Amino acid sequence: MTKKQSRCINGYLGQNFIVKLCCYFKFLRALEEDAVSILTLEFNYLRPYKREQLSTSGDRLADKNGGGNSHESEALSFELLRCCFGAKLLNIEMEIQYFPRGGTKVDYTCSINGITLGVSVTRLVEKERRAKNIDPFNIRDVKKFLEKKLKGLQNALKNVMKKWDKPVLFVWAESPRLAKLAEDAWENIDECLKANTILFSVSVGEEYCSMFHNPNYFKNKVTMTTSSRKRMND
Predict the structure, then answer these.
(1) What average pLDDT does this structure show over 203-228?
(2) Which residues lie below 8 Å from residue 71, measured CB to CB, with a gap of 6+?
(3) Which residues pair with 92 in a beta bridge?
(4) In the predicted structure, residue 220 carries a pLDDT above the cut 50
(5) What is the value of pTM for the model shown?
(6) Mean pLDDT for the chain?
(7) Which residues contact 74 (CB under 8 A, 6 or more apart)?
(8) What is the number of other CB atoms lying within 10 angstroms of the CB of residue 138?
(9) What distance separates the 2 farthest-apart alpha carbons in the chain?
């Protein structure tokens, strides 16, 4: 562990970002138990995404995430799990096999302490609603949003050929208010739908933040391939 990178129960400080968690042992217990759990974290960039030094696995997610517009959110969700909880990447989206095909998918699978996680990453953002003069999200909106994602996770687990042990719904929230709404909405969702899912509700600081930009941002962004990044060890 270098001076620029440290891990503790209360948080993580690295070269790319800072995470305030205060839920380290709660997460480890949730891994072992067949029960739902919610973890609320705070995430702040230390440098813009295009200048971040991702791990080899983070680069795999950034470069080969199935052709979507979610390069940053998926790669950084894994980097957070790796740096804070020791996650190891197993398969990216296009490597996971399902039968029948054509249903919902998870974004990647990883393992922590020998337990396999199927991770679905999403973003809770109000920028476009504000631009269109639509009312801000309320708890009903967020509950409906989370329920849709949970149904997708259940469908993916039903059809995947190699099962994972725990489903994870990883939500990047544009603001602490949205993260709190996700936490409150989670408590009102039917337990059968949540199954044994772990929810990460992560509020993101504004400085350097680009993951909530319009998808055209990703089309115009200069792609940094694995060969052009300075990699960190997994």
Answers:
(1) 59
(2) 61, 62, 63, 65, 218, 221
(3) 108
(4) no
(5) 0.86
(6) 85
(7) 61, 62, 65, 107, 108, 121
(8) 10
(9) 49
Residue pair 164/157 in contact by the 8 Å Cβ criterion: yes
Q: What is the 3-state secondary structure (H, E, C) of the chain?
A: CCCCCEECCCEEECCCEEEECCCHHHHHHHHHCCCCEEEEEEEEECCCHHHCCCEHHHHHHHHCCCCCCCHHHHHHHHHHHHHHHCCEEEEEHHHCCECCCCCCCCCEEEEECCEEEEEEEEEECCHHHHHCCCCCCCHHHHHHHHHHHHHHHHHHHHHECCCCCEEEEEEEECCHHHHHHHHHHHHCCCHHHHCCCEEEEEEECCCCCCCCCCCHHHHHCCCCCCCCCCCECC
Say if residue 100 is preceded by a cis peptide, omega within 30 of 0: yes
Tokens of 104: 């919902």
With 50 as the cut, is the pLDDT of residue 224 above it? Answer: no
- Is residue 108 within 8 A of residue 94, CB to CB? The reply is no
Q: What is the pLDDT of residues 147-185, one digit of tens each?
A: 999 999 999 999 999 999 999 999 999 999 999 999 999
Structure-block tokens of residue 82: 């790796």
Structure tokens at 91: 């398969």
Does the pLDDT of residue 120 top 80, yes or no? Answer: yes
Q: How many CB atoms lie within 10 A of CB 71?
A: 19
